[in-house]
Design brief:
Mean pLDDT: 94
Structural class: mainly alpha
Helix content: over 70%
Strand content: under 5%
Largest sheet: none
Protein name: DUF2842 domain-containing protein
Keywords: Membrane, Transmembrane, Transmembrane helix
Organism: Falsiroseomonas bella
Order of helices and strands: HHH
Number of strands: 0
Number of helices: 3
Low-confidence stretches: none
């Protein structure tokens, strides 16, 4: 399987799992102080970038 196609599949599945986990954990955060909510949603909204970046670099890397 070509590396970009594999990265696409892994990226989409990983992102869906990540969103599901963030939404499930958000139920615990919604009753807390608004500053805690702000911190949670800020981190959750940005945290997916680093794994996605690594996956994109891996997919674009030339073999050999």
């Amino acid at each position: 399987m070509p590396r970009p196609l594999l990265a696409l599949i892994v990226g989409l599945l990983g992102f869906l799992l990540y969103v599901g986990a963030v939404v499930a954990m958000a139920d615990w955060v919604l009753h807390l102080h608004w500053l805690v909510q702000l911190a949670y949603f800020t981190v959750a909204g940005i945290a997916w970038v680093w794994p996605a970046r690594a996956l994109m670099f891996w997919a674009a890397r030339a073999d050999g």
